[in-house]
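User: Last request for today: this protein with heme C, please.
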Amino acid sequence: MTHRLFAPLLATALFVLAGTAFAERPPAPLTDTSSLPVLGDVWRDANPYRDDETIAAVGRTLYNETCSKCHGPDMNAKGHPAPPLRRLQRYCRKVQDAALKTRCLADVDHYFVTTVKQGKYILGVEHMPAWDGILKQEAVWAIKTYVDLRSR
Ligand code: HEC
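Assistant: Here's the final one, the structure of the complex with heme C:
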């Protein structure tokens, strides 16, 4: 490799590394979550708040405060960089068998929670920040409850 190629490559690599190391963590949301039933530190496998409209209202405020910048206000992703979260339940909605549907929704719950906790990093570039340690599970499940109820 000639040095003419090497220099810009090195600069890019350093830029990517610096971006990973110094990526600023987002602040914790200001939304009051004290009305949410306490779940503790052990993360549930499936949404314990499913179909609760009161909790979805808190979830909506949390969503608009922490996720809407990228996923669009009120989950309207048009013109925003991140995928619309409404689509996540698409397949489960079509499942007729009740037991299978429950398992399908639990699968999506698992994917949702894991993604939110770990964020999305591709080749060291942050596409979505990791929310672990910023959002408690109560907040994440409240957001999921909002997403579920608005995905129908
Ligand atoms: C800084 C922008 C940004 C913020 C803020 C953000 N996301 Fe994301 N999110 C993304 C991007 C970009 C992707 C797609 C990443 C990829 O697949 O490359 C994504 C993907 C996801 C996915 C996976 C979607 C799929 O179709 O597979 C979920 C779930 C998700 N985000 C939930 C959330 C939630 C919940 C919040 C708020 C707590 C949030 N995100 C905040 C940018 C963001």
